[in-house]
């Protein structure tokens, strides 16, 4: 495991853990679509499930970390992890549906390439803005406030996250994404997009929702039955 060769308190160590998570735990909204309650965080899920999984892992290896709330399209509906390393604060957007594989420093702007997409941060007076450029367009991905909700309030938001009064970016249809080998795969509705560092994005369209289980198995090696078997 790559993470074992780095100092536990280093940025590279934490980022190696993040990369492993993006490979092993997919982002998806299957629980939301099928009205299922998450029981196994290793099966992935939305930002809340993936963030809780990573937060628990960091706590086990005794890295100072906290649940942190953030804004998407001016709604405080996103969860991530704030981490303290050598007295500096970083943000791990591990629950993002896109490959946010690097830590975002609170006090320094960064820009990096992830599978042909560009992440860039801009520091504001009370928050950190994260932008993602992909498919020829630049998107405001997340606004991370420096002062977050309390842990208890975030957990309450997580427990109530499937409230029908809340509209998420993935409310309208299927979302499933994961790093698979040397590519980042993003499945939205009937289209699978395949991103890589050295090739143009490839898109496979016209995938029937009736073949969802087959599609997830074929491209992500994911068994959808594990989601369907969970309790209501």
Automatic annotation (TrEMBL):
One of its GO terms (molecular function) is acetyltransferase activity. It comes from the Bacteria. Belongs to the arylamine N-acetyltransferase family. This is Uncharacterized protein. It comes from Candidatus Magnetoglobus multicellularis str. Araruama. The lineage of its organism: Bacteria, Pseudomonadati, Thermodesulfobacteriota, Desulfobacteria, Desulfobacterales.
């Amino acid at each position: 495991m790559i993470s074992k060769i780095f100092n536990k308190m280093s940025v590279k160590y934490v980022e190696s853990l993040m990369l492993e998570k993006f490979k092993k735990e997919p982002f998806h909204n299957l629980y939301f679509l099928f009205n299922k309650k998450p029981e196994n965080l290793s099966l992935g899920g939305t930002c809340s499930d993936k963030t809780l999984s990573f937060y628990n892992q960091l706590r086990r290896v005794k890295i100072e970390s906290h649940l942190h709330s953030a804004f998407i399209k001016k709604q405080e509906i996103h969860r991530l992890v704030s981490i303290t390393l050598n007295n500096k604060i970083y943000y791990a957007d591990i629950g993002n549906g896109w490959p946010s594989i690097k830590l975002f420093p609170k006090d320094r702007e960064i820009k990096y390439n992830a599978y042909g997409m560009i992440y860039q941060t801009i520091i504001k007076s009370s928050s950190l803005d994260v932008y993602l450029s992909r498919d020829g367009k630049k998107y405001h991905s997340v606004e991370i406030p420096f002062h977050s909700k309390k842990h208890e309030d975030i957990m309450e938001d997580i427990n109530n996250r499937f409230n029908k009064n809340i509209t998420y970016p993935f409310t309208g249809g299927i979302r499933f994404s994961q790093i698979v080998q040397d590519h980042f795969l993003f499945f939205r509705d009937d289209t699978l997009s395949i991103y890589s560092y050295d090739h143009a994005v490839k898109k496979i369209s016209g995938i029937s929702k009736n073949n969802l289980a087959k599609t997830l198995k074929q491209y992500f090696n994911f068994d959808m039955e594990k989601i369907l078997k969970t309790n209501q």
